[in-house]
Each structure stands twice: as C-alpha cells, then as structure tokens.
C-alpha cells in the first residue's frame, strides 16, 4: 500500500488533461444549449409520457451541462 506522499509525487509527473479543453468550452456549451432549446421546443409541442423519456430527459441534461460549460468558459468556476 502506497503512502499519500508517494501518490502525490507520482501525480505531479502527470498533470490533469481535460477531455474538452478551455478553448472549446464555449463552443460545446453553446451547442448543448442550442440543442436543448430545440429539444425543449419539440417537447412542448408534442407532450406525451414517451416524450418525457425520449426528449425531456436529454433536453434537461443538455441544459445542465451546457450551462456549466458556458459559465466555465467565461470564467465563473462552479
């Protein structure tokens, strides 16, 4: 079992590299928010129990992730 100091020192040689870089966060956030707007509009026109799972849940997730990416891109870290 390794000590905390050994884990800390081994992590120092491999810095964190995010999947989506800082330069692309605004684009990803904007695309997610625009897609959420389209899905929300479609959902509001065709409400049914099936559309809640097929359209409503993805729209909600897109709004959530899109908002976080957008505010991180402009410098507000959550």
Topology:
Elements lengths: L3 H9 L12 H21 L3 H25 L5
Characterization of the model:
The chain is mostly helical and 78 residues long. The protein contains three helices and no strands. α2 packs antiparallel against α3. It is elongated. The two termini are 34 Å apart. 12% of the residues are buried. The model has no long low-confidence stretch (mean pLDDT 90).
Shape: elongated
SS-based structural class?
mainly alpha
Share in helix: over 70%
Total number of helical segments?
Answer: 3
Number of strands: 0
Distance between the termini: 34 Å
Keywords:
78 residues, mainly alpha, 3 helices
Concise description?
The protein has 78 residues and is mostly helical.
